Amino acid sequence: MTYKETIEYLYNATPQFERIGAAAYKPGLDTARALDNAFGNPHRQYPTIHVAGTNGKGSTCHTLAAILQSQGYRTGLYTSPHLRDFRERMRVDGEMISEQEVIEFVERYRSMGLDVTPSFFELTTIMAFDYFARRGVDVAVIETGLGGRLDTTNIITPALSIITNISLDHTAQLGDTPAQIAGEKAGIIKRGIPAVIGNSEGDGVREVFVRKAIEEDAPLTFADGIRWFDSATHCGEQMLYSGTYAGNIIGELSGECQTENAATILCAVDVLRRGCMTIDNSAVRHGFAQVRELTGLAGRWMKLGEHPLTICDTGHNEGGWRYLGPKLGEFGDRLVMVIGFVNDKDVSHILEMMPKQARYIFTQASIPRSMSADELASAAAAAGLKGVVISDVARAVEEGRRMAGDDGVVFIGGSTYVVAEAI
């Protein structure tokens, strides 16, 4: 197969949650374990760090990978979804898997004639684990796809488990209370393996994690119970964390949620060090300062252009918008919002968090799972948000920039897939 044919096979022959939603969700680990066994259990050939949570997983994974790379470890990084290129999902020292590697893995899988029908995520997860083994990584940072307990990635036994935070998202699959969702995320906590919780807010959330840690005899650290820096202030388009154990740190990622992520990451590094992993303070500082260059991270409060200032962010749920809403409100009536969502998300609470004084363009990504722009416009009107409908993302962005003028601000977001098409 060519690379194009291989990607079409992955998208069309395996159910993909990102495109079609719940119909592609396959809870349970039996298929993942069968695939893993067929490929020789590749993830057992290197230590891993496992990261779950409702928000901040991607930033946390990429920054940890950047820190480990800065220390000189050959570092694998597995995240999802991708924005532009499927190969973004699996990297070694920031370099994406090659097209030929993708082709060869899929051809190996097809030649095996296995009696399993994996989802897109199950197959790509084993592809990543196999790729990291063949590239001889020293460590791999692994992001969960959805939840934790029944997520495909949960076949690993990591050196450290991290849960960034809990808020309501994917309630149909994970539960409709913070405690229920925490129970699913807590499924990545393994017997005797240290775990870090970034933010334990939410009814019953802390108790869920404590109970699970006791059951598994797992050392547990709550990052939000420790002062990891004296202050966090905006320094241009970066963050300055003063008074950390690594000295003053410049953080390249500057979204409001990044202060919480920074505390989680500093806590995780501290736990890894206590587990006898060498990570110098200079590596911590360099990883925070160069995360985009080192790992290819995109889509987190990312500037796409000037005149007008054009920013995108992949925050797509209530937790993410608790940070985005107030920050966007600071732009006042200079702001034009280009937004779209997926059709299986209750957007009513998110729309209430959006700035009322902004002008809106309602759009939709070109995937089956997208909420129609007309439906979104109706829901937005009920929340007091006024705007126009332009279903094509590229045209919506173009019109947004025209409406904003040279001195305005355009924000693109709501759905990862809208951001992907804008980029």
- In the sheet with the most strands, the strands line up as 4-3-2-5-1-6-7-8
Poorly predicted tracts of residues: none
Structural class of the helix and strand makeup?
alpha/beta
Spell out the CATH superfamily of the largest domain: Mur-like, catalytic domain
Query: Count of helical segments?
Result: 17
Shape: globular
Main CATH class of the largest domain? Alpha Beta
CATH architecture of the largest domain: 3-Layer(aba) Sandwich
Instruction: Name the beta content range.
Output: 15-25%
| Largest sheet descriptor | 8 strands, mixed
Give an overview in words:
With 423 residues, the protein is α/β, with parallel strands linked by helices. It folds into two domains: 3-295, Mur-like, catalytic domain (UDP-N-acetylmuramoyl-L-alanine:D-glutamate ligase); 302-422, Alpha-Beta Complex (Protein-Tyrosine Phosphatase, Chain A), CATH 3.90.190. It is built from 17 helices and 17 strands. It has helices at residues 3-13, 17-20, 30-38, 57-71, 99-112, 120-134, 171-174, 178-185, 205-216, 258-274, 281-289, 291-295, 318-329, 348-352, 373-382, 393-404, 416-422, and strands at 48-52, 75-78, 90-92, 95-96, 139-143, 160-163, 195-197, 220-222, 231-235, 238-244, 247-251, 302-305, 309-312, 335-339, 359-362, 387-389, 409-413. The strands form three sheets. An eight-stranded mixed beta sheet has the order 4-3-2-5-1-6-7-8, with helices on both faces. It has a six-stranded mixed beta sheet with strand order 12-13-17-14-15-16. It has a three-stranded antiparallel beta sheet with strand order 9-10-11. Helix 3 packs parallel to helix 6, helix 4 (57-71) crosses helix 11 (281-289) and helix 8 runs parallel beside helix 9. The mean pLDDT is 91.
